[in-house]
Amino acid sequence: MNVGKGRVLNQLRMLRTQHGLTQQEFASLVGATRQTIVAVEAEKYAPSLELAFRIARVLGVPFETVFQFKDEEVKPRL
Amino acid sequence: MTLTEKKAMASLLVSALIYSYLSVNLADAWTIPDQSAQHLWSTWIIVLGFGMMGEVSVGAWSAWQRKRGELEDDRDEAIIARAERLALVSGFCGINVLIWQILWQATFSHPIITTLDVQHLPTLFFVLMSILFLCHGVKQFFILLLSLLST
């Protein structure tokens, strides 16, 4: 199976607010800076695998509940 | 502002101050006059000393900040890596401009366009030092810019 380029999407903002955590509080729990959490939530930065697992663990949800991989649509050649 | 951004800002300010010292010490308006070898040596040693003192101070201050709970994480490392690549490219370009000047002067005895006098050692010294500062400045500048763009 070939997997092409894509984007890492996430539900971090929704899950974090459900837990009643501020970005600063959540950043402290996962061992990252507040700016990193801001960037991840805005999907401007795809976190490292380790940070992504730490995020899922702190939220107490499976990895794929937080992060999804969306394939880039490939336009067929004419 | 993250610790990485604060460090980049401090480092950029320190290098700007040291480069000002270098410029004032070597340049006269837009030209580099003749300098004695002793003057070049002392300038280089002083610049090196100030640079080391500045970077050690920034490093010590950031270690103190880390003890107080400030963090540097994966995103900071990714930004630093990208900024370092851009600094490398700028250094590569700077050296190639210098090489181009040498080739130009080797080819034509009186080049049509203005060139740096690379046969004049104080000028060559100043240009090479400027390229070093350029690389460092580009790195710190892009750390600040990329941090700003990714939040």
From TrEMBL, chain A:
Pfam families: HTH_3. Residues 12-66 form the HTH cro/C1-type domain. InterPro entries: Cro/C1-type_HTH, Lambda_DNA-bd_dom_sf. PROSITE patterns: HTH_CROC1. Keywords: DNA-binding. Gene3D superfamilies: lambda repressor-like DNA-binding domains (1.10.260.40). This is Transcriptional regulator. It comes from Candidatus Phycosocius spiralis. The lineage of its organism: Bacteria, Pseudomonadati, Pseudomonadota, Alphaproteobacteria, Caulobacterales.
UniProtKB/TrEMBL annotation, chain B:
It comes from the Bacteria. Keywords: Membrane, Transmembrane, Transmembrane helix. The chain crosses the membrane at residues 39-64, 85-104, 124-149. This is Uncharacterized protein. It comes from Candidatus Phycosocius spiralis.
